[in-house]
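Subject: sequence -> structure tokens, single chain

Hey, anyone have a minute? Need the predicted structure for the following. Not urgent.
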Amino acid sequence: MIDWLHSLPIGVLAVVVCTATAVVTAAIFTIVTRLAVGKRAASFSAVSPGLLPPMALVFGLLVGFLAASVWGDNSSAQLAVDREASALRTASLLTRDFPAADQRRMDALIRAYIQSMVTREWPAMAGQNATLLLPPPELASALQLALALSARNSGQVVAQREIVSSLDTAFDARRQRIIISESSVNWAKWAGVIGLGILTLIAIAFVHSADRGSAAIAMTLFAAAIAASLLMIAVQDRPFAGPFRVQPAPLVQVEPAPS
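Reply:
Had a minute. Here:
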């Protein structure tokens, strides 16, 4: 899909998809009905109605595969964000076993990291511009702080190890969500679904060319199904863009309060 479509509200996107589908359907109906005269009319009406069920079935299968892929990416993205938030919360809580100065430094770094993710990285992921080339400096500093903590007893040794593990988990979860943010339905898949939908509409027009009323009804019904299918996929095409995008709410909820 065109990039700007992902920034549209769902109502506007629905209007765009339905309008485009209606225009294509009307064009096919007009062309086929005007060509259905004389010998061509007999040829068009001779097209077997048995052609329609397998074409509709293949269209439905393609839509189902795309929807499953899109929903899977969105679920994986949400899981990555939840895992990152949980890891950061664990690191913040375990730092309570160390001196207050270390607690404040760790909380400040985690807070700065979360704010940076929300204000900078989330918009970058929405545009598929986020990068893994450079690690976030706030999280890297938090990991260095965790490694430098002075553990004076066995409890603090265990806590330090768990803090380091949690921050490493946060790093990994961030990598996962950035990788998932690059996923989308590519142009070849969109072309396949749209092309098959158009071919099915043409077949419907041929089969019902002898009766314009039944052709209009059948084509309108299938066009509505096409529009609904395309809209369903388009609104969740990119996990971090669109009206149903994955939000940074879990990270915001675990952000340490300023001390």
